[in-house]
Amino acid sequence: MLRSGFSPRCALEADDSSENRLSKIEAIIEECRYGIHDISRTEVDGDPPLPRFNMPLELGLFLGAKRYGNRDQKTKRALVLDREQYRFQRFISDIAGADIHAHGTEPGKCVEQVATWLRTQSRDPKIPGGRKIAEEFEIFRSQLPAICADRHLEPEELTFGDFAELVAAYLTADID
């Protein structure tokens, strides 16, 4: 969450077809102390309908790095989100007993939970509360079409890098 001084990471931050996606994810996991894993999109897709398990796989890699990695890797902290509090137990029951946070597919609730978790993990009193950051995010989202129009972009064509840069520029401009 850029607003709180953290740098979001994603395998889509670099669009390089010569680089394997899993290798990019592994490198990011190795470099990051905090991991936020939203497993709410674990659902069936296609014909025949099969589940997509990319997010649970990435969570497993993160947990493995924490468990089996060196001293730095053992300091990792994770936040796991799902749409319903106990839905994950139907497809990844091995993490039962973990504190999973439910967001009900509401972006504002998701932002609130992530921001609150990051503030708790960092123990940085300068980070605003999750609700405040969620309110600011809603203002940004309402202004995003105009921001994109000024840059001759369409909101639906934004890359991960575009979006992160727009958020950073928005925060720097301190627009309300």
Q: What would you say this structure looks like, in words?
A:
The chain is mainly alpha-helical and 176 residues long. The chain is built from five helices and five strands, in the order αβββαββααα. It has helices at residues 21-31, 54-68, 107-122, 130-150, 160-173; strands spanning 34-38, 44-45, 50-51, 77-82, 100-102. Strands 1-4-5 form a three-stranded parallel β-sheet, sandwiched between helices. It is globular and about 45 Å long.
Estimated radius of gyration: 17 Å
Number of alpha- plus pi-helical segments: 5
Which shape, going by the Cα principal axes? globular
| Structural class by helix and strand composition | mainly alpha
The largest sheet, given as strand count, sense and whether it forms a barrel, is: 3 strands, parallel
Estimated helix fraction: 40-55%
Number of strands: 5
Task: Outline the low-pLDDT stretches.
Answer: none
Give the strand content: 5-15%
Mean pLDDT: 89
Query: Helix-strand pattern, N to C?
Result: HEEEHEEHHH
* Straight-line distance between termini: 18 Å
- Strand order across the biggest sheet? 1-4-5
Write the layout of secondary structure elements.
Blueprint: H1 21-31, E1 34-38, E2 44-45, E3 50-51, H2 54-68, E4 77-82, E5 100-102, H3 107-122, H4 130-150, H5 160-173
Parallel strand pairs: 1-4, 4-5
Antiparallel strand pairs: 2-3
Helix pairs in contact: 1-2, 3-4
What's the short version?
This protein is mainly α.
